[in-house]
Amino acid sequence: MNNKIKHTGIVDSIEDGRVRVRIVQTAACAACQVASHCSAAEKKEKLVDIYNERNSQRLKVGDSVTVTASRQTASNALLIAFGLPFVVMVGVLFAVLTLTGNEGWAALAGILALLPYYGVVWLFRERLRQRLAFSIEA
Fold first, then answer.
1. Which residues, other chains included, contact 11 with Cβ-Cβ below 8 Å and sequence gap of 6+?
2. Distance, CA of 40 to CA of 52 (rounded, Å)
3. 85-131, pLDDT tens digit by residue?
4. I need a labelling partner for 1 at 20 to 30 A (CA). Which of 9, 72, 96, 113 fits?
5. First-residue to last-residue Cα distance in the chain
6. Using alpha carbons only, how large is the chain's radius of gyration in Å?
7. Cα–Cα distances in Å, from 8 out to 22, 65, 72, 92?
8. How far apart are CA 101 and CA 120, in angstroms?
9. Angle between the N-to-C axes of helices 114-123 and 103-112, in degrees from 0 to 180, rounded to the nearest 10
10. pLDDT digits over 51-91, tens only?
């Protein structure tokens, strides 16, 4: 089993040790012959920033590259972005509901509990950027 997630993209810009790559993310049916006539086909462009790329000197804007990330990196990103916030929100919701018995306050507290969570994520964004990094395959 391949342990890497790969996307082909085009180098959009190179500056200050950061390579920005434009990738096209497609749904499974986007490559279908009738995709242009079907509303289910979905195709999105995304910009991916790759920091500290050792091959950035030989890359030029417009080059075709393959952006990779490990499956562990993807799992960690999903956990930080969706899993842990869900646990925090539901935990606070049930705790406040148990303490007060008021569903409105419990819902509000659950949502407001996400503010400090994402504040901590923002404070550690540089460390997370290093741990959750993409790279360019040679």
1. 19, 20, 21, 22, 59, 60, 61, 62, 63, 65
2. 38
3. 999 999 999 999 999 999 999 999 999 999 999 999 999 988 888 78
4. 9
5. 20
6. 20
7. 9, 6, 20, 41
8. 29
9. 10
10. 766 666 778 788 888 888 888 888 888 899 899 999 999 99
